[in-house]
Amino acid sequence: MRDTDLYRQLLGLEKPWTVERVELDVKQQQVRVFAKHEKPKSWPCPECGKACGLHDHEQERRWRHLDSCGFQTFLHARIPRVRCPEHGVRQVRVSWAEPKARFTALFERFAIDVLLETSIKGATTILRISWDEAHHLMERAVSRGIARRPHRVPRYLGIDEKALAKGQRYATMVCDLEHGHVIELAEDRTKESVRRCLGRYSIHDLSFVEAIAMDMWAPYIQQLSAIVDHAEDKIVFDRYHIVAHMNEALDQVRRRENKALRAEGDDRLVGTKHLWLYGAENLVHSKVDLATKLAFAKLRSSSLKTARAWALKESLRDLWKQRSRAAGERWYDEWYSWAVRSRLTPVKKVAAMVKRHLPNVLTYFKHRITNAGSEAINSVIQMLKKRAFGYRSFRNFRTVVLFRCGGLDLYPSTHLKAG
Ligand SMILES: [Zn+2]
Asked: How many whole angstroms from 55 Cα to the centroid of ligand 1?
């Protein structure tokens, strides 16, 4: 087989395209494949498919293709332009790449696999592409995926806010809890953010949403009440957020108490922050060493304010184990009176906030949904923790999240035929 035939097959070139010649540049470690076309009677218009006459050719362009034995491989060609009576002068479609792509479709498919498996930095090394090229590739993949996404109204929505940089900037994220995908993200955490995330659905579509897990955040509540029919029965202020508020209150109590104790030379609370924030059963199975666990057991049964706040936090988690809405309501009344008697201001604030919103906390017993354990949300949290990707802008952040957690069909189609 001649090298021109070999590359025609490897590139999946179809009539009228063939390989004219192949150049090997050992010094630059490159293979350059030049494609040419025969002279067909007509070319299809890229818009309407109508057979049109040749108008002219574009300047020569090149596309990066999969390496050949470690040599970077480029396909070079001049794309013909047709003159369609309806659409004017247009560049014809080629089988090896999407319009405006810098890579062949086969290279893009491979690059997407690599980017899904590793960090962007890792992928740039493996693929020998730049950071910008990697981002551009992901952006294209995400747009492709979104354009192909079937229009399906999610039964269960999860709405969450994420701090992007030290609490200075926020993103609002809407998830499909049933399928574990991120649907969309928008900057900030305003009514407008929610509106933008759900922009692809009409008011009629949104009436089919059965329940929404979210935080007690006024702009979200207002916006959802405005666009989702019977939102008052569908909104679930979920366990994940309420426990997070309680952890924050506990941490405030600890910080204040630690300061007071240290002023008296008592260092008992120093370095204990993370221990209090564990769920009790998770601490048991954690990697925390035995001596620390034993010391912590002593601390939490002490008369410290922090220990009181911890007991209330741990106990609150039982709310969601109640059998019914009525049982949950009774249970919360008891917990609430314990909390208000605790004389711990941050805890009392959370208790009051939950009480104010109790009807939509108890909707849990009807819908049984929560953002806790949501695959989509957890993977985004992991990404934020690792900072394993460079989101220099919100746009980059959105691209990376949808690329990894959007449940999208990211791949360009290829025209490679078997045999
Ligand atoms: Zn046309």
From this structure: 13
